[in-house]
Design goal:
The chain is mostly helical. The chain is built from eleven helices and two strands. Strands 1-2 form a two-stranded antiparallel sheet. The N and C termini lie far apart (40 Å).
Length: 247
């Protein structure tokens, strides 16, 4: 259940340094890998996308060239041409393990604190403001997580749940923060290392958050969201220590 490309623009926001092509490349790459844009879908026109990101069309074109090299974007010519999303490759377990090992336990706990605060606030507000479609989409993503067998698909389903929870809060700032945090942690929590997370258990925990949101129970929604983030943070720290002890 992907978000349409035009709906993704508010989630991306302007890049912090318009002069860096890498910033634009990374921002779009993260959206693709998080599943915010599905394979085959067309990016907005260069003018629209560049304007939203706050960069020149020259910078955007350089970024698109980099995305083509990564195999994330395909550009077609002609009347029905444009830039289209490609299926992202599966993340490398070796690369992800290296990323997690390179982070310190203190950094991971600090990152977890930020995720804890953002997820808790989103859940609280979602219980007050969400529409039925938000709850439906959250349940769809938790269901996908329970069914999927591949790391990349599980990571996308899990990340999309948390981003949908943020969207349900109707806070643009919180949603952008959720997207940024999922881009950092989304794939790491599904590493098949040490004692891997049970996707069925996690999926049922996410469904329980959706239940509390639907019941408009702010306290329960927040408590369940915070408990799940706390579990994931402790797993990341534990797996980091496991990886660094072996090296």
């Amino acid at each position: 259940m992907p978000t349409r490309p035009a709906q993704v623009l508010p989630l991306l926001g302007p890049v912090s340094n318009p002069g860096l092509v890498d910033s634009v490349t990374r921002r779009i790459s993260e959206a693709v890998r998080l599943g915010l844009m599905a394979p085959g879908e067309q990016l907005p026109s260069e003018g629209v996308l560049a304007g939203h990101l706050g960069v020149s069309t020259v910078t955007l074109r350089e970024a698109l060239a980099g995305l083509r090299e990564q195999g994330l974007v395909e550009t077609r010519r002609g009347r029905r041409g444009g830039s289209f999303i490609c299926e992202p490759g599966a993340p490398s377990v070796v690369e992800l393990s290296g990323r997690l090992a390179a982070m310190s336990a203190t950094e991971l706990r600090d990152l977890g604190d930020e995720c804890f605060a953002i997820a808790g606030a989103c859940a609280w507000l979602a219980a007050r403001r969400s529409a039925a479609v938000n709850v439906q989409r959250m349940r769809s993503f938790s269901g996908e997580l329970e069914r999927e067998t591949k790391l990349a698909a599980r990571a996308r389903a899990n990340s999309r749940f948390w981003i949908e929870l943020a969207l349900a809060s109707q806070s643009e700032r919180l949603t952008r923060a959720a997207v940024r945090l999922q881009a950092i942690t989304g794939e790491l929590v599904w590493l098949p290392k040490a004692a891997p997370l049970d996707n069925g258990v996690v999926a049922r925990a996410l469904a329980a958050i959706a239940d509390a949101v639907e019941a408009e129970d702010e306290v329960l929604a927040r408590a369940r969201a915070e408990a799940e983030i706390d579990l994931m943070t402790r797993w990341l720290v534990s797996t980091h220590l496991h990886l660094t002890r072996r090296s």
